[in-house]
Amino acid sequence: MLEVLPETQDNLLAVRVSGELTNEDFDLYRELIWDRMKQYGAARLYYEMVNLSWVKPGAALENALFDLVHGRAYDRVAMVGEKIWQKWAANLISPVKKKGVRYFDLHERERAMRWVQTGEE
């Protein structure tokens, strides 16, 4: 499930994902981030993962291709999670993002939001 958080504004997309991510969730995410990229030239992303149990492989592959093509249009990206594989995923995709990806543990969510909003911790 993809939930758009109230901090979403201007070129910042803030989302929380949980449970099972579907093709529809990824379609909505790509639409929302792409709209910001087109409007502002670059988009900041706060991506929080809570109780994430499954990501459909086809949807994840489509999303990875989107990131490869549009990675330079990302500004600050904060990934917040609770599992070691989420940290590994953040490190794996970091090189394709213009400013990389910073990973924060779930208990650091406020720090992550502050960093993605202002660039300061």
From TrEMBL:
Residue ranges that the Swiss-Prot or TrEMBL entry lists as coiled coil: none
Domain of life (superkingdom): Bacteria
Family matches, as Pfam families: SpoIIAA-like
InterPro entries named in the record: SpoIIAA-like, SpoIIAA-like_sf, STAS_dom_sf
Name of protein: STAS/SEC14 domain-containing protein
Species this protein is from: Pontibacter mangrovi
